[in-house]
Amino acid sequence: MMQVNVAEAKKDLSRLIRLVETSKEPVITIARNGAPVVKIVPVDSPPVSDRIGIAKGKFKAPDDFDASNEEIYEMMSGGSIF
Q: Is residue 34 part of a domain?
């Protein structure tokens, strides 16, 4: 855990935030006169499992949704489009 004083935090705030964002430092404590005052910590983001399937039941794909897969494959693999 890294600790910096208020003056250093003012000067290097962007760098300190980047350290927390990239997980190089899990927590940075800012101190005044050597006494811890505040912490910089990452914001909790929702787990991936909570985001997957978020649109479930919101729309219905047509039954023939993938009917042209062969045609698209041919176009993408160098086949003629005309």
A: yes
